[in-house]
Every structure is written in C-alpha cells, then in structure tokens.
Amino acid sequence: MRKDTPPRIAVVGGGLAGLTLALALHRAGLECRVYEQAPRLGEVGAGVQLSPSATRLLHRLGLEPALRSSAVLPEAMEFRRWADSSVISRGLLGKHCEERYGAPYYAIHRADLHRALVEALPAGAVRLDARCTLAEEGPDEVVLRFADGSEAVADAVVGADGIHSVLRQALVADRPRFSGQSVYRGLADSRRIPALVAEPRVLLWLGPGQHFVCYPVSGGRLVNFVATVPAGGPGGESWSRRGRVADLAEAYEGWCADVTSVIGAAEQVSLWALHDRDPIERWSTGRITLLGDSAHPMLPFMGQGANQAIEDAVALAACLRDAGPGELSAALRRYESLRRPRTTLVQERSRGNSTAFHLPDGAAQRERDAAMGRPAPEGQDWLHGYDVESALTSHQPT
Ligand SMILES: Cc1cc2nc3c(=O)[nH]c(=O)nc-3n(C[C@H](O)[C@H](O)[C@H](O)COP(=O)(O)OP(=O)(O)OC[C@H]3O[C@@H](n4cnc5c(N)ncnc54)[C@H](O)[C@@H]3O)c2cc1C
Fold it and tell me: Where does the chain cross the membrane (predicted)?
C-alpha cells in the first residue's frame, strides 16, 4: 500500500498507446491527464490486428464486451502467392488462439477500439487542442508547455505522441527513417467480395517488391486492406495523403483476381509513406518516459505496433502503481528495462520482413515459401503467449 501522495502523471498523446495507459492507470487507482493535440478524439479509418498478448490485457481492463461486439475473430492467417493465390502457409487463429493462449486474436476497426477506450475513461481525462511543444524537467517536477501558451505541471510525463514525438527529443536527436515503401490503406464493402469473407481470415499475398493484406472488420461488414508499393511510385515520401484507387490498381496489375477484386471493391484509399526509427538505448530520464510509437516506431510488417503499445501501457501502469515514495525514476527504469528487449526484437523483425516479404520470384523466394510452409506450432508462442503482467513479476531491472 502506498503511503505518499500519488504522483501527478501527464500523458502527451491520445492515440491507442496514450488512451490505454490512461485506462490502465485509472484501473490501478492512479490519476492522469492526457494532452492531445487534435481538436477531437478519433483514429484513422482503418483496421488493426490485435494479438492475444494485447487482447488478454484489454480484457483485464474491462473491454471484452465492447471488443467482442465489434471485432472479427479470424479463423486463420494465410500467406499466398501473388500471381495465382496458391497458399504458401496457413496458421490457425480463432479457437486455436483462445485455447493455446487463453485470449483471442481480433481484427477490429481502429475507431471501435479507440471508442471502447474513450468510453471506459472517466470524464475529463483528456484535454483536447493541447499540442505540447516542450517538456522542461526539473528536480521535483516536469513543466509541459503547449502551443496555445498554456502550461501543465506533473511529477511524471509519458510521451505517447507517436513517431514524430516531441518528448523523444528529450532523449535522443534521431529522425524517422524512410523505409522505401508506401502503403495504400482502405476499407471495402464485404458484400462486393463475398468469396474472400466467407471464412474470416487474415490474407497476405506476397510478391516481388510488394505485398497485399486484407481482413474483415466491423462485424464482417467491411474488409480492411493494406497494399505496399515501392518508393518512386505514387506517394513518394509524403507522410500521408489521399491516394487514388486507379494508381493502386495500376501498381497491382497482373496480380491474382483475389487481390484485384478487393481493389475493385474499394471506393477510396489513403496513401502513407512508411517510416520507422532505430531502437534507442534509453527511453527514460528521471521523470519522463516514452510509450508506443514514440519509443519504438516500427514498420507494420508484423502488425505489432499497437500490440506492443498496449503491452507497454499495462507494464508502465503497474510499475507506477508499485512505486513507493521517491521511487518514480526507479519505476521508469523498471518499465523500460522490461519492455526494451522485446520491442527491439519486434522492431528488428518487422524491418526484416520488408525484405523477406518482397523477394523476387526465384530460388530465395522458393526457399522462403518452403520454410513458411513448415510452421512449428510453437512458432508464435513468444509473441502471442506473452503476458506482460506475469513477466513483470519475475523481472529484475538491469
Ligand atoms: C499500415 C499500418 C498498419 C498497421 N497495422 C497494425 C496492426 O495490424 N496491429 C498493430 O498492432 N499495429 C499496427 N500498426 C501500427 C499501429 O498503428 C501503431 O503502432 C499505433 O497506432 C501507435 O499508437 P501510438 O498511440 O503510439 O501513436 P499514434 O497513433 O501516432 O498516436 C499519437 C497521438 O499523439 C498525438 N500527438 C502527437 N504529437 C503531439 C503533441 N506534440 N502534443 C499532443 N499530442 C500529440 C497525435 O495526435 C496522436 O493522437 C499499423 C501501422 C500502419 C502504418
């Protein structure tokens, strides 16, 4: 039981990472304020895959009814060949995940997840229109400065402000790295592609230089798709903009009918240049730490950025809950030392997939496909079977 006054915690950024942290802190009996730059809360119109390592945590936070009512539980994840849609590998999700990992694998619309988090938070937990421009750390507190001239004071500040993080600048002078890839993202009406949604699946078609992913969301009414294209194609390095379905169709000309039928069902697409950053040695100072994409922005080629952010959030809330008087800085070190090795591995493997997924047809591609076709049942245990709360109980900070 804590004997001191609970710390005042400020979270910069109200994305999936910041809101999950706010909820986890609230459930741990700690108060925090989220400062979000946008005038209203929301998420991009796209899907997100949630692994059992994250869904077990969201369920413990009380979100199971909301998630089950809107998410789809895909039966399997299939990798396929770009030209003829032949199956390279099929890994079971659905019941298999619930039985093996004790938690489901969800495909969900981001807006549904975001809404579930917001609705679970106490009123007034988020201040909107609050763009943080600077965090000044003193011996006893941190002063946050905002673009409108206002200030806020906190004992601890968490930068959950995404890949362009202002708070990260307190730790390292790096910049986002362009991957050489852009992605088109969109949602299609599943009634226009019934064959692809008859069995709910996450489908990935791998081809030379690019790949295409789709899965149902919103109770199966919509199909979310993400299509990579190499740099130099339409989109260049711009962070995000409206894309053109016709450009996407051109980029995937000659691909199998399954892929072109999804593109044919799309009415609009957005276009994002993909960036990540190198892993960094430290996420925390004495009173400031990072969470989610601000700490470990990664390429989306394992579908893990949000999952890792959710794991971060629950771990950080537990470390802050357990901290006694004068132990704030030790709590941030405990959090960071638990999380950094795992998120670094996921960042690196996500980068590795940008080569592996895009091999030209030939010997290396055939070798890759043969290896993918022999999946070990325990192959995903390290990712999906992980329970960050159990890991924390046995963790010794380094
Ligand atoms: C194409 C694609 C597909 C993906 N698919 C998956 C997937 O299937 N599964 C998965 O787990 N992950 C996936 N990801 C990754 C996932 O989307 C991100 O890792 C996750 O959304 C990061 O959340 P975040 O809250 O850390 O950052 P963000 O979502 O970037 O949120 C940051 C928030 O901070 C606010 N902010 C920024 N600067 C300031 C400031 N100075 N002051 C105040 N507020 C500020 C922003 O407005 C925003 O609300 C995918 C990513 C992409 C690009």
Answer: none
